[in-house]
Design goal:
This protein is an alpha/beta fold. It has a single domain, classed as Vaccinia Virus protein VP39 (Rossmann fold), CATH 3.40.50. The chain has nine helices and seven strands; from the N terminus they run H-H-H-E-H-E-H-E-H-E-H-E-H-E-E-H. It is globular, with a radius of gyration of 16 Å. The N terminus is likely disordered. Helix 5 links the parallel strand 2 and strand 3.
């Protein structure tokens, strides 16, 4: 499937990403786009046989988006929410068949409801949760699970050994997480985490 726009090269992607990182390092989380190895590993954590759409948060230049599209039966199953206007324009040109919504992840439920999107089976996040204030991080996590089906899963990647969602935050949000794997062939090396609703807590 040919999904990329030839006007955009890996070199230009890195320059665009670096430019945004210089201006707003806390909102970007990394100095370069995710590698193909990381994108492929993340995309494999989604069960595409289930009904519903996949929402990607903070798509950047679209490396993970491309992997999600390659695995999905229909590109229209993929929805991107991105805050940066320049990246939204790039993503719309590169992936004309998917829905790209400009907005803040803290308002995810409103954005998805207003766009009449659903049901949502998974959220894939590249947001730098560990760089965020606790309140913002908790709001985003709660918003993710507010839009998902009961068995929905949040796939989050992060850099370093620390979990992207601290145990105290996960407990307050009623979710449980596990590290799905490491991707060393990425700059920097990344860990992939899966979060779902804590069935034990719900039963109690």
């Amino acid at each position: 499937m040919h999904i990329t726009n030839p006007r955009f090269s890996p070199v230009m992607d890195k320059l665009n990403f670096l430019s945004l990182w210089v201006r707003r390092p806390q909102s970007m989380g990394a100095i370069a786009p995710s590698s193909q190895c990381l994108a492929t590993a993340i995309a494999r954590e989604v069960d595409y046989s289930l009904p519903g759409v996949v929402v990607e948060l903070g798509a950047g230049t679209g490396s993970i988006t491309a992997a999600l599209i390659e695995n999905a039966a229909d590109p229209r199953q993929i929805v991107v929410v991105e805050r940066e206007a320049s990246l939204c324009r790039l993503l719309r040109k590169r992936f004309p068949l998917i829905r790209v919504i400009r907005g803040d992840a803290r308002e995810l439920e409103r954005l998805i409801t207003r766009s009449d999107i659903g049901p949502v089976k998974a959220v894939v996040s590249g947001l730098p949760l560990l760089n965020m204030p606790n309140q913002d991080r908790s709001e985003i996590i709660d918003q993710c699970f507010a839009i998902m089906l009961p068995d929905g899963v949040l796939v989050q990647f992060t850099y370093g050994s620390a979990a992207p969602v601290p145990r105290s935050v996960a407990r307050e949000s009623g979710i449980a997480g596990e590290r799905a794997g490491w991707v060393l062939r990425n700059l920097p090396p990344a860990a992939i985490w899966r979060y779902s609703r804590d069935q034990t807590a719900r039963a109690a």
